[in-house]
Amino acid sequence: MMPERPRVALYYASHDGQTRKIVDRLAGHLAAHGVDTFITDLSANPAPAIDTEADLVLLAAAIRYGFHLPAARRFLSRLRVEIPDERIAVVSVNLTARKPGRQTADGNVYLRNWLKRTDLRPLFAAAVAGKLDYPAYRWFDRMMIQAIMTISGGPTDPSTVIEYTDWAAVEALAEELAMLVKPTP
Fold this sequence. Notes:
The chain is built from five helices and eight strands; from the N terminus they run βαβββαβαββαβα. By secondary structure, the protein is α/β, with parallel strands linked by helices. The chain is globular, with a radius of gyration of 16 Å. The mean pLDDT is 94.
């Protein structure tokens, strides 16, 4: 009889689609490491069933105006009732993570504040840089993001499109997650 493969349930909240791309890439790399995955879009399904049998439940959430998306915040409140912190992983997708040293809870203010506000002590927490796509944003969003970029020293040209996501780092995150759920031989 074949031993059961470890499973990671991936839930995500994305505003512009980059978080979905990151979750898809994580799922692909996890599968290559012998880990089954199940992906749920919290925007399409705001109150999904929580996979309580998964070895690890990962919540990936984009930032909008300094806060993780409401769908992710609501889901996290529900998740913590059903899953202990030591089986939860979080990935914050934000443009601050484009800078060196901003990929951890200690180095990323958005991730650090989210964990502090929720008193969450997950097994795994990381920040991944997203994508800056001024032409795709509505006028108000573009103005707000340009103001934030002015403060943080980022690009403000309204024609700028930069994918800051470090795909090699995403692969490394998947390897770390696989190590967390795979039984030791």
